[in-house]
Structures
1.
Amino acid sequence: MSAVTVNRRFVDRVVLITGGGSGIGEAMALAFAHEGGLVVVVDRDADGASRVASSIVASGGLAVAETADVALASDMQRVIDGAVARWGRLDVLCNNAGIGIAAVCHETSESDWDLTMAIDLKGVFLGCKYAIPHMLRQGGGVICNTSSVAGQVGVLNRAAYCSAKAGVVGLTKSIAIDYAAHNIRCNALLPGTVDSPWIGKVLAQQTDPVGERARMEARQPVGRMGRPEEIAQAALYLCSDDASYATGTGLVIDGGLTAR
């Protein structure tokens, strides 16, 4: 019987993940660490970031936790520069932090619009702004931005969210073109509905949580929501050398939601 081959595509590569304290970001952090990455877990929830980083270390990996608000330039510059100061480089940036506010356009408050844009779009911009100079100096790097199928098609009752996530797709393409000659690749993930802590909070606010969960599951042709681990595996691919020819693309992972 042949030996099982274990992928270790990120050995000695420094990976910074925002929103790494739960959900998709947590799954990404664990997945990159499993393949040898030196992981910086960034989250505004200090306890969540610390829990994930501690789990990685307990499993024999290397990780540190950082508390930051991705909408603050000073925070993003601090954690990115700090990662480079600690490990000498930044190979992979996963701009994953995001929020979702439910409202149609005329019922969206200005403050909710601004908050959604600040975290879901400005946070991605700031991550790229402060990571790219390091990547230029070291001769390359990879950026993976978490958008959403809501950045490609309209979703009911999500005016600000759809707008921000579409902006992430546009920014991803712009960066891919601007830095292709500098060996910097930039791609986006476009997940469908993923069973995450955020979905749990949404369901908890419903008058019929069981019925709402069933409706969420049924809108995917595969009949279920995605799992954070499935999105993390797509991030591993896009950030690995296996995807060396992929830049400026949006990888849709939605259980067939947008295939109809």
2.
Amino acid sequence: MKFIKKIVGIRLERKRKTAYSNIERMIEVDSIKLTLYGDLIKVVSVGEYIKKGQLIARGEITPSIHSPISGEVEEIITGIKDRDGYEKMIVIKNDFQENTYENYSAKEHENLKIENFLSLIKDKGIVGMGGGGYPTYLKIKRAFENKNKILIVNACECEPYLNCDNRLVQERAKEVVEGINILVKIMKLEWAIIAIEDNKKEAFMELRKALKSHVKIQVKVLKRIYPLGEERVLIREIFKKK
């Protein structure tokens, strides 16, 4: 009888084309169409000048949306379905000026009360990037109500071809750490763990530089075994338990 050794996870590497490619800006377009889905209600009108980051539609359940460009509201389309079946769209003509609506600093948020912080996160329309678009403020609210004391920041790619977490940490380590620090203070966490794969040496070095003055945040380097980016697998690898 042959015994086969059980292998937990498999090693996959498909990042050669993106490993050293910087994050790039999208090509500027003349206009954009923003879809009003769910219970989103527009808060702008035709002819109104809009700045980059300005709120253009608000929802109670559906996360609010903001303009990614500055320019004029050219048209509000209703009754014509797009490829996903949505019938309402706001068309903004780009003025290519990149006029920004608001600028924030990390220090402004560190001392907010949890209620005000959750309201801000909801109003800014921040959602998870996994595809489901789950509102981030609900995740934070639930964790705070359950009195969770540890935050795990998943910097491990969920698929072999992806390299976005790696590039983001390499190029924006300071901002990533500032965001984590805000959550640690507002949620009264005991500590936070940034989980990263062992093939992301450059990202790890950038995190070390950014973490010099943050004693409650640490980096955990894990073996790059697929599917490490899946949250239950990640938790098991960090704490060695389900």
3.
Amino acid sequence: MLFVDRADAGRHLAQRLRNLRGTDVAVLGLSRGGVPVAWEVAEDLRAPLDVIVVRKLGVPFQPEYGFGAISEAGARTVDDYVVRQSRLTGPEIAEVEARERVRLDRRVSQLRGDHPPVPLTGRTVIVVDDGIATGSTARAACLAARARGASRVILAVPVGSAEGTAALRCTADEVVCLHTPSPFFAVGEWYGDFGQVTDEEVTILLRKAAAAGPDSMDPDPAEVVLNIGGARLAGSLVIPDRAGGLVVFAHGSGSTRHSPRNRFVADALNRAGLGTLLVDLLAGEEELSRSYVFNVPLLAARLAGITGWLRSEPATAAIPLGYFGASTGAAAALWAAGASPPLPVAAIVSRGGRPDLASRRLAQVRAPTLLLVGGADQLVLDLNRQAQTLLTCVNRIEVIPGATHLFEEPGALGQVADLARDWFTRHFAQVISA
């Protein structure tokens, strides 16, 4: 594993590109996996961010076998070898391209919404993806950037095959690839977390970039470092004006405060006037060790220490507190909330959580608890239903139909954000009015 997740990869890639800070540069993220990587690059370079959508052109009788790709501005690439091998005719190629062009235009409109595309004329354009295998989609994206007026095109990726990156040097003016490991089988093998990026995650990053503008790409959160039990834990703290509450995110299964799924939910809570603290419960090499990832009492102790710090700070001392836990982080949240004497926790939300790992503490939890589980995540759903029988606090289980463990399906993460927002808002209001 080279990178924890796409955000981690983006930060490493940004360091390599830092010489471009202050120049007339724009960043394009390939949809969908390239956008979280591109966000980190654009944020560090203080450059505008946009999405670029590429559609594969599949052989009609074997659609997964691509003979080319298309992108915006009429850009297209065609593999003549595959065309000859598949004996494709001109009309067959035209029919596939016309069909995919309609789908491409629909996707561009869906992801970008009402925001106009970032102007590229005369600019240096950095095309970013999460990795390169064959390079066909990246080639189409580079050609699209050139067709939209880019004066210089840089293709930047965290990891790629040596063959794929070499082949793209004749398309891009420069190729920046941090690692070209050999043997190379798939991009995802070099990431700890390579879950599918949802449309919601892409659109929220694009909206944040558009709202910040090209001259103000600094992150909204205040970066904090907490010394908890001898461990230095990094966090991102957002406190809106007149915040109605503050939610501490407890990440799970080796994820970090940069988790795109938790950041998506946190953004929704911020828009509702709630503060958020996304904090790493593990430090440094601990994140790579399963003995730490599944040490629920340790994670809970650190969460309790973070809660104490928030209660000691003047800016957060009087704000109602809640926990949002994912996977093993949900177990840590429930374990901490079941402590004696009880912590000042007003509400808890678990996303795809493992409350069974905190079964010894569940009966002592007093904070109203919402369990959110994907309908297609049958094992975790069963564990949550069993754990619910041990809870004596106000509680509810909500099943997101068709969603799997990471809530990658269209609309699933949006439902999580809406349900979490409503749960926290309701129970924080009860604390304030008490």
